[in-house]
C-alpha cells in the first residue's frame, strides 16, 4: 500500500505536491492524535483506579480482602459476597436473556414475514432506550411483589435483579443478533435448501455458523450491559452482602453486587480511608473481569470468524 | 426423438411474481434423460424462474402465482404430499454464485447425503471421492479435504458446489449460469465435466452465453419475455433456427 501511495503522490506538479503532502500530514496527525488519546485516557483511568485502590491490596491481606465478610464498620472488607452477588445476578440474567434473545432474533430474521419484522424490530430497539432506573421502578413496583407472592421471603432477590437485567440486555442482544443473521448472504440459505435441507436445518447448519461472530458480539454486549449495570440492580436485589448458600433458596435471596456496593457506599466514606480504597479495589476487580470477558469474546470470534466473514464476501 | 419418457415435463405453465409481472407465459416442454438441456435467452426472459420451478425453490419467493404442471418422472411436483426436501435431492441445483457452506470441503460434500439419512462412513467417503472426481476437483483437493471450503479459488468453489449436488446422487442437475463468475480455463473444465456427467444424469442449464449454449447443448429452448419461442434439437436450432426472433438473438442482433 505504501508503494501505491508514493505513486499517486508523484503525479501532481511539485508545487501542488507539497500542498497535498501538508494536507495529508495534518489529517494524518489529527487522526493519530484521536487514536492515541483514547488509548491514553483508558490507561489514565486504569492508573487512577490503581492509585486509589492499591492501598487496599497492600494493607489488607488478600485472604481477608477476598474473604466472606463485608462489614466495613468493623473494618471487615471481604469482597466474596459482592463477587458472588454480581456473579449470580449476571449469570442468571444471561441464562434468561440468551435463549430468549437468540430465539427471538432467529424468529425475526428467518421465520417472521417481512411485514411483521418491520414492525417488531423498531419496537424492540426502542426498548433499548428505556433508562435503567425506570426498569428499576418496574422491578420494585411490579416484579418484587409478584416474586414475594410466589413464596420467596422477600421480593427483592438475586432472581429479581436477573430478570430486570435480562430484560435490559434483551433489546441489545436481539437487535445485534438479528443484524448478524440478516447479513448472512441469501445464497447460503439457497445453497442449503437446494440440496434438500429444511428451513430449520438450513438455519442450524448454515445460517447460525455463518453469523457466529456477530452472534457472539451480540451476547457479549448484552452481558457487558448486565455486569456493569448499577442502579436498577441496586433497587431490586435487596442489597444484603451475604454469600447465598444453597440451603437458603440460593437464587431467591437478597444479594448485593459490586457495582451497587460502590454506588451505595461511596458517598459515606472518608477520602483516603481504607474503606475508600477498598471500594476502588472493587472497581479494579470489575475492570479486570470485564477485560477478561472482552478478550474471551475476541477469542471466540477469533481469527476463524474473520476468515469466515471474508470468505462470505467471495 | 421419443426414445424414452421425458424426465421433466412442463405443461401450460404460467408464473407471476408478487408485483404482477408475468415471468412465464404458457410454457410447454419436455426434457429427455441423459441429455444437456439448455434454457437460453436474454435477461428477464424467465430462464432462472423456470429452473427454480423444477425443484420448487420458487416456493421461497412470497406472493407468487402459478398455473399448470411441472412433472418429474410423471408426477407433478406441486401435487399435495410431495416431500420438497426429497424432491430437491433428486433435482439438485447449482447457482451462479458459488455457495460453499461454512465448514470444510468434506463437510460440504457430506451435508446433503447426511440430511438424506446416509450415516455409513464408508459410503459417505465413497460419495465424496466419486463426486469430486466427477466434478474434476479430486486431484486438486484430495490432500486437504479438511480445509475450509472458503479457502478454495472461485472456480474450485463452483466445482465443489457441483460436486455437492452430485454427492446426493440426484436424477437431474439444474445449473443456473454456473460459469458466470469463472475464468475461461475454469469454464472449460466445468463444461468438460458436463459431457461426462450426462451419462449418468439429466442436466438442465441456463448458459452464460449463446456460444456456451451451442457448445454444450443437446436440446435447447429459447425464451423471450416469459414465452417459449422455440424448443428442439440444439444442433438444428443453432444452425437453422425456425423462428425469426431466435435467429436474431443467435446471430447477435439483440440481447
Can I get a quick summary?
Chain A has 314 residues and is mostly helical. Chain A has 12 helices and 2 strands, in the order αααββααααααααα. In chain A, helix 9 (199-228) packs antiparallel against helix 12 (274-313).
Unreliable spans of chain B are none
Q: β content of chain A, as a range?
A: under 5%
Radius of gyration of chain B: 18 Å
Helix content of chain B: 25-40%
Query: In one word, what is the shape of chain B?
Result: globular
* H/E topology pattern of chain A: HHHEEHHHHHHHHH
Spatial sequence of strands, sheet with the most strands of chain A: 1-2
Tell me the major beta sheet of chain A: 2 strands, antiparallel
- Give the number of DSSP strands of chain A: 2
The helix content of chain A, as a percent range, equals: over 70%
Write up this protein:
The complex is a heterodimer of chains A (314) and B (255). Chain A is mainly α and 314 residues long. Chain A has twelve helices and two strands. Chain A has helices at residues 2-10, 14-59, 62-65, 80-111, 114-127, 132-149, 158-182, 186-194, 199-228, 231-236, 258-265, 274-313; strands at 70-71, 76-77. In chain A, strands 1-2 form a two-stranded antiparallel sheet. In chain A, α7 (158-182) packs across α9 (199-228) and α8 runs antiparallel to α9. The radius of gyration of chain A is 25 Å and the shape is flat. With 255 residues, chain B is α/β, with parallel strands linked by helices. In chain B, α3 crosses α4 (121-134) and α3 runs parallel beside α6 (154-166). Chain B has helices spanning 47-54, 84-90, 105-115, 121-134, 138-141, 154-166, 184-197, 210-216, 234-239, 244-250; strands at residues 8-16, 22-31, 36-40, 65-72, 75-76, 91-94, 172-176, 202-206, 219-224, 227-233. The longest helix of chain B has 14 residues, at 121-134. In chain B, a hairpin with a 5-residue loop joins β1 (8-16) and β2 (22-31). Chain B has a six-stranded mixed β-sheet, with helices on both faces. Chain B contains ten helices and ten strands. Chain B is globular and about 50 Å long.
